[in-house]
């Protein structure tokens, strides 16, 4: 008999570790709570433990220690109920290429013991722009369409949680943006979406929260906007009237660097600090006789932050 606990978190991971027979520790004491209806992005370099973590939550790989609940069900004690709550779109395209789209999606629903519901499946295919391809064999579809079929199969049994492992790998920019729109639409229906991605702009654009994993450990979990605000530095870019060969001695106390063969002066500052130092910098530039034609600011991207974190704690 399955036992469901009250759902405060759609996914709850406590003290999770995984050590393979070879002795390699893929995950080290992972603790993570993912809220109902959020889009959560898991970022990390290759080999960081992203796929291992997903595989354990989905019941594909056994944990060495720790506890995991999905939709309130313990993934070990209530495997069947937990698995029914989850849809998984793996990174690799794996489906019967000789099967027709409609047949494979209906079959996926039946695998979870769900009663036939052709109206629901029709809507899924329409949302994925696959309805006009329903009678095509999968082998005749483009790579992007095949990936959509994988998503349709994962949604066929009406899961409350959807894992997308590198969902837009190998698809063009236009299709990637269409997929982003689909993910947002799923969230609006109450589906909790967890995605791993190498496309930093994907996480920045879509995720409510971001988790960064490296060497099997969660380095941080933060609201996307808050992360950008907390860790994102700003740059003041000065387009110089005359190029500099080096930064003058009088300006050495500022965090400055030269770019564009000496035609640009970059000043790094924290806009959360009491003083940005910009007025003093401009005064010192004038006193040093350094003229500039234009100036503008630029915020660091999530990619800059990611590299900073991974590089700093590698």
Structure explained in plain terms:
- The chain has 314 residues and is an alpha/beta fold.
- It has 2 domains: 11-229, Rossmann fold (3-Layer(aba) Sandwich); 233-313, Alpha-Beta Plaits (2-Layer Sandwich), CATH 3.30.70.
- The chain has helices at 50-57, 79-84, 101-111, 118-127, 143-155, 173-188, 200-206, 224-231, 278-287, 302-313, and strands at residues 11-19, 25-34, 39-43, 65-70, 73-74, 86-89, 161-165, 192-196, 209-214, 217-223, 234-240, 256-259, 264-269, 292-299.
- Helix 3 (101-111) runs parallel beside helix 5 (143-155).
- The protein is elongated, with a radius of gyration of 24 Å.
- The model has no long low-confidence stretch (mean pLDDT 85).
Which homologous superfamily in CATH is the superfamily of the largest domain?
P-loop containing nucleotide triphosphate hydrolases
Write the H/E string, N to C. Answer: EEEHEEHEHHHEHEHEEHEEEHEH
Output the radius of gyration. 24 Å
CATH-defined fold name of the largest domain: Rossmann fold
Shape: elongated
What fraction of the residues are assigned to beta strands by DSSP?
25-35%
Q: What would CATH call the class of the largest domain?
A: Alpha Beta
Integer tally of domains: 2
Structural class of the secondary structure composition? alpha/beta
Distance between the termini: 45 Å
Poorly predicted regions are none
């Amino acid at each position: 008999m399955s036992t469901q606990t009250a759902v405060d978190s759609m996914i709850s991971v406590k003290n999770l570790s995984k050590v393979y027979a070879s002795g390699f520790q893929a995950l080290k004491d992972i603790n993570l709570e993912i809220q109902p209806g959020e889009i959560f992005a898991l970022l990390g370099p290759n080999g960081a433990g992203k796929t291992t973590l997903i595989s354990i939550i989905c019941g594909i790989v056994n944990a060495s220690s720790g506890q995991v609940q999905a939709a309130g069900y313990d993934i070990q004690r209530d495997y069947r109920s937990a698995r029914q709550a989850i849809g998984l779109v793996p990174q690799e395209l794996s489906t019967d290429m000789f099967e027709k789209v409609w047949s494979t999606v209906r079959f996926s629903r039946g695998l979870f013991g769900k009663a036939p519901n052709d109206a629901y499946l029709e809507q899924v295919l329409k949302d994925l722009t696959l309805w006009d391809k329903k009678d095509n064999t999968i082998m005749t579809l483009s790579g992007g369409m095949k990936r959509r079929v994988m998503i349709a199969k994962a949604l066929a049994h009406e899961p409350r949680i959807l894992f997308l492992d590198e969902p837009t790998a190998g698809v063009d920019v236009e299709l990637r943006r269409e997929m982003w729109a689909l993910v947002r639409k799923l969230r609006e229906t109450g589906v909790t979406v967890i995605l791993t991605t190498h496309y930093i702009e994907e996480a920045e654009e879509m995720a409510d929260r971001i988790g960064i994993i490296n060497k099997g450990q969660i380095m941080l979990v933060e609201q996307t906007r808050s992360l950008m605000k907390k860790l994102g530095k700003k740059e003041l870019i000065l387009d110089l009237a005359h190029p500099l060969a080096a930064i003058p001695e009088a300006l050495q106390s500022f965090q400055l660097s030269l770019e564009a063969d000496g035609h640009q002066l970059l000043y790094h500052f924290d806009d959360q600090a009491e003083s940005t130092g910009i007025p003093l910098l401009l005064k010192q530039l004038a006193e040093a006789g350094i003229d500039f034609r234009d100036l503008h600011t630029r915020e660091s991207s999530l990619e800059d932050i990611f590299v900073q974190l991974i590089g700093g704690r590698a």
